[in-house]
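Replying to the earlier thread about multi-chain prediction with a worked example.

Input:
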Amino acid sequence: MKYGYFPGCSLERNAAAYHLSTLEIARPLNLELIEVDDWNCCGATEYVSLNLIASYALIARNLAQASKPGSPKELVAPCSACYLNLKKCDQYMGTSRSLGGKVNEALAAGGLSYKPGSINVRHLLDIVVNDAGLELVKSKVTKPLEGLRVAAYYGCMLVRPEFTGNGGAFDATEYPTTMDDLLEALGAEVIDYPVKAACCGGHMTQISEASGFEMIRRLIKAAADRKADLIATVCPMCQLNLDGFQGAMNTYFKTDYKMPVLYFTQLMGLAMGIEAGKLGIGSELVSAGPALSKIGVEVEPAAGKGDGKPSRPKKDDKSLPMPKPLIKPQEVVR
Amino acid sequence: MTSAPSQARSPTFFEQVVAATPGVSNLERCIQCGTCGGSCPSGQDMDHTPRAIFAFVREGMKAEALKSNTPWYCVSCYYCTVRCPQEVHITDIMYTLKRIAVQEKYYDDSTAPDFSKTFITWVENYGRSFELGLMSMHMLRHNPFGVFKIAGMGVGMVSKGRMAFVPTRIKNMDGLKAILAKAKELEVAG
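Result:
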């Protein structure tokens, strides 16, 4: 099945592992991902904090790009914030005529338009579980994750609010189970994780350390207390907070947690027998190596690009970094 | 309460908030039950619980509502919104309060608004964001001592190839700029 693919800014660099592993698992599941041409940032939670119409116009430009003639009607976003923003914009443009009218007036200034309801925004987890289906996933498992204790962490934006338009939410708002079922299908032991739909704090580490680190601490502690080997996530913001800021959180609270946080797509890839390096495993700051050794997976302490060098642009390079499609044409497999 | 303001008077603060929230806010339906504050992951660090803010708004206590850190401590997790028995669109209202607080210069602590401003400046000039690089810059400005705490993280992110120092720029930046300029014009027109 064909889908429009909206990777979102995080997947370009910080969450490149999510992008890589998504492409790796999409192939065997026959999910054909066609990257939206010249997509832009969804604005996260920041743009709408300062400008209303501009923030919705920013999101709507993506919907307009994704709904150009010949594009798939289904649009998939792996990032929960992008997913929520795109879905909410589509819905609000339809239900609020004044907002929809103004947004389209703004889009017209750039030669674009968007008719609300013409795109069905989906999250990657949704299409894996509900379109590809657990039976197909199971049939692709060659190295079951037996003995691996996983906390399935959904975070907030994936499951809230429950939009009723365009097919509605695909899982419960407070105690979702989709990813639990998926991870069990991979052979993992999914632990009870009562905070599974609690918020990671988003950008709160930037506003208040006390608040931001506390939200991270609760999630890490709940997984550690229940003896999880690792946390599985569906969102680059959650991964950044739980993995990237885990060390700073430990310093703040004088704790010593070492809880690895992997994308659910990375775990799917491992279960399908795909090499860890191809799934971006090794780019997490809290190494998943010790946990994955339980299932016989060797992890190279690899760098994102493989050379271990920082990715700072060269001084003499005057050109601006230009967008390259994250999906190279040869990577699209029918 | 939600009827259109007569031409003789300017809108009340309550009317202003309702009008600036997309779609329905349902703010008039708040019954002061406190489910929102009880559900909030950052509630204990807020100056006021959300329901207190809604009481301020209804009573026209604009400065109290807009000088509070509450909207800026909202993490947009929508727990309150899905739990509210009156279906008040709490998260959207928090965004509205942030916008009014910045536009009318009520909020004194620049930490949170500056983060939003820096974020959108990059988006408005490149079309894309680069969260992690942005966070380091923001921290240098607002919490220089905090940088030492996350220095290890920064080194880790750079060595793992996860850190970008500038975002990529989209192809049709002119088109996006035209769209955003028009949108801001419409925003002011109300």
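Chain B has eleven helices and no strands.

Feel free to reuse this layout for your own posts.
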